[in-house]
């Protein structure tokens, strides 16, 4: 066991505070990682606040982890000390079901092991995430960060990035695709950049006219205001693919109308019951509504490699770990363009009582 | 112009009565067809009763038309006098949009011309359907009935059959696919037969245990009672593809749960707003809900050829045209296994007005 400095919460709705956590001794197929950067995800705040009723405390969040290898177990073959590596939303899965066999570990039939607030498959111990100096992770769940990818910006690819990359790839978005992205937050801004890099013509759909310039700066060819009924009507049947990043219950019918024949709208945010969908909107143009959950290890590696090759990087604001509580507040007020990343050097400099 | 005997309704909620209708003189690319058989579809009753508020009277329904060619216009090349032919739900489209170019005329961007209660694209005249001696149809919308296909049974393929064939083909149902069909009516029974013929393992989902024997007789490997919560729970994540033929508003969440990773549920019946769908059910297994509307001309010809080759035929009850009103009543009471077909010889023997 190794003791690490970390930031976490001991109870719901309390500030994150500095603490010590234990990391397990290396198993044969484990990799020990010194964390250099960790992105801040909305779900970190949900977990800390126990919004989903499933949080076990102390909760050390963080699943957009970037660092370098400091030690490896004797059976590790894919990583060596000094390698630039990354860890996303999961640190283990059964490795013995069709989804794991197909590289869709996020859909493991026995359930994935979450990077934090999960249960170690061997010991049942609570997992702790990336708001810490270090982490120990099963080799298979450790990704390579290509040399051409700036470590500072790699973190948000591990959750925000892969969440939008998986459906873009599954639905064949590429040159000539007409794509719309609903919402311009952490996920939405990555979706715009990635779809543009894949060759698509991208429109941002937003409620706020004030986001038009930002959308175009990210590469969007057009902006559609969802509160403008005439503009929405004029865009009927226009898109092949719509990525819907709205994180709460909403009415998808006005967006479904924008899909052309065989078009697909993919939900990545809303987990609640949606407002009633009109069956006719699906039947009339063979439209679909689908969902997507993060992505598997092969797709995540593909994303990191793609972003290195095409120089696609999230827009990040770097924060000191000591400012994490105000960063949470700003994130929840949508006051960030578009993702906070903790520079973990600031944790190393912090004395933990 | 030619005068034909027909059965139709002159006002909503009135019995169908014998009448005379006019068929247009042949245009250069027209085919004149003597109708031998016509299937009775639920939408015929909806149209006659003006359930959708769009019926123009007199309404002569019928869009599952089978007959033989009696005359052709001078530019017709694909059909000749005596040919066995069929006409489905549409008799024209713009032929100048991406959907028409791709053989998805049902999604014509300018709107298809319906076989009945439609408007002729040249004259604006009301179209009349197949409950009649004859019909005149643009060559392109006239399908071939293969010699190996019994004319008596071909009619229901033109609407019930193609409605389920299109999504089965679009979603790649084939050998090894795990398919469920919800509802065992005209559409459902065709879906079972076609999916079995494509090589799928088919389960019928029904509310009534009494349908189990019928489902197995049609080729279903299993029957799942939707009112049995334990059986539904045990079937979680089991299917690749679910065809949902329920014709009215319903709760799809219990069925979505039955889909495995990347599974798709396709609506072909319900056109109303559905009960609220849980976003999480879509996100968690990358599930989709989609819709589908009849099918294009190439797919319909493919279906007729497939049914001839594999001897897949709808189960039909032949009726005399003079019994049409009682057939409508029985159909609306679900008292038919599984589709009525009018033997049009009975109309030829009938004196009209």
From TrEMBL, chains A, B:
SUPFAM superfamilies referenced in this protein's UniProt entry, alphabetically: GroES-like, NAD(P)-binding Rossmann-fold domains
UniProt keyword list: Metal-binding, Oxidoreductase, Zinc
Gene Ontology molecular functions: alcohol dehydrogenase (NADP+) activity; zinc ion binding
Superkingdom, natural source: Bacteria
Transmembrane segment boundaries: none
Keyword Iron-sulfur annotated: no
Occurrences of domain Enoyl reductase (ER) (ranges): 11-342
Cofactor dependency: Zn(2+)
One Pfam family of this chain: ADH_N
EC number(s) reported in the record: 1.1.1.2
Family: Belongs to the zinc-containing alcohol dehydrogenase family.
Protein name per UniProt: NADP-dependent alcohol dehydrogenase C 2
Gene that encodes it: adhC2
